[in-house]
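A.,

Following up on our hallway conversation. Structure tokens first:
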């Protein structure tokens, strides 16, 4: 069996080594806080949002459904809005090849 005094010395020694490692680690970094680039994320987010709706600066209505056709974007942009159509209430729409056909409820 181990003596309680020996176990206590080992525990204190391990705690001391851990505390010393912590203090050395803290001392090895620059104490000044690192500042992020001014508005980098926010400016990029706004630019992306603007780019998504470029070419469609007006005419969007809040809360109204649209059929939106996407196409391949330019360099560094995955998609772009190619066309858009407002959906009319009570009308049925379907896909015709690469386009939207509708309204189907139009009758004589």
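Then the amino acids I'd put at each of the 108 positions:
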């Amino acid at each position: 069996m181990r003596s309680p005094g020996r176990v206590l010395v080992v525990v204190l020694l391990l705690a001391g080594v851990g505390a010393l490692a912590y203090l050395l680690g803290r001392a090895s970094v620059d104490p000044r806080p690192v500042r992020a680039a001014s508005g980098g994320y926010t400016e990029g987010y706004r630019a992306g949002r603007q780019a998504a709706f470029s070419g469609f600066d007006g005419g969007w209505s809040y809360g109204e459904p649209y059929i939106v056709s996407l196409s391949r974007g330019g360099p560094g942009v995955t998609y772009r809005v190619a066309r858009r159509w407002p959906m009319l209430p009570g009308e049925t729409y379907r896909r015709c090849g690469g386009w939207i056909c509708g309204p189907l409820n139009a009758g004589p």
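Residues 64-108 form one domain. Curious whether your intuition agrees with the design.

B.
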